[in-house]
Amino acid sequence: MAYILGIESSCDDTSAAVLKDDFLLSNFIASQDVHKKYGGVVPEWASRAHLRNIVPVVDVALRNAGIARKDLSAIAFTRGPGLLGSLLVGVSFAKAMGAALDIPIIEVNHLEGHVLSHFIRYEKSEQSVPEFPFLCLLVSGGHTQILRVNSPFDFLLIGSTIDDSAGETLDKAAKIMSLPYPGGPVIDKLAREGNAFEFSFSKPQIPEYNYSFSGLKTSFLYFLRDRLKEDSAFIEKHKANLAASLQKAVIDILMEKLIVAAKDTDIKQIAIAGGVSANSLLRTEILKGEQLYGWRTFIPPLSFTTDNAAMIAIAGYFKYRNGIFTSLDVAPYARS
Ligand code: KG4
Ligand code: ZN
Q: What integer pLDDT is reported at residue 32 of this predicted model?
């Protein structure tokens, strides 16, 4: 039996979690409101906030888990990708705490964490987890990928965006509409009151299982620019329909390639992960795959979709079981 502390600090959330083997004991997240007024993450502010938050966040996670520092078996931390200054805080903290407690530290790739979040046990009852191999649509603020997951240590990238990510597209579109940051959840909420068939935007023609969102973003921007010339209140009047139509365009693009990838690989275990997997339309469309294509789908609880340390702890747990540890001279990396 092992107690694993997970630490996540790759972007603007400072998070710590404790697992008892694969069972979640606590998952605490301190979000940084400081970025809201800038409409995006300010890296320098993010690293300063991580510095302030990391000690109390880890304390709360341990307290909520009901264990003491000396009970810990290992510390898993996000090594990258992400903002270097932010990562540095979590990496340095993990190293110092690991050295002080004389326990192993375990590096985790942030994306690997998102995917493996499906293996966090959080209910006392039996919980179904994906079988290998499965396909995972990883959709976050930084990435949009289709992965063939062969084992906890073997991920094959079969498709990826060639420009913007799905989350970035929603965030940028929201910014154009003067909606608050992050825009993804705001668009999701607004879209519930809108008509998704009101407006249509350009669709990309990209080979294989790859994605592109820059054309959609530009088409949205030009569309609004033209309409605003005729009516300066256009956005305000059509907010919900714009959000619904844009969201539908993004989710249609995501689903189209995923459906083809599932068919071509003949894999019917389909998972989604990352911040955009919180999106209600995406969750509905994925679920439809069970009826339409015989998929077995894995949709994470909302608390494991956006950045959290529980996903880092579970990825660390797999490595711990296999004796895969990291040396104390490890440095963070910004890109995978
Ligand atoms: O995984 P994540 O927390 O951070 C990264 O690793 O990037 O993802 C953040 C992204 C943001 O772009 C945010 O707008 C998006 O996830 N997001 C959503 C929703 N909740 C978060 N997008 C659409 N619908 C949501 N409900
Ligand atoms: Zn993430």
A: 82
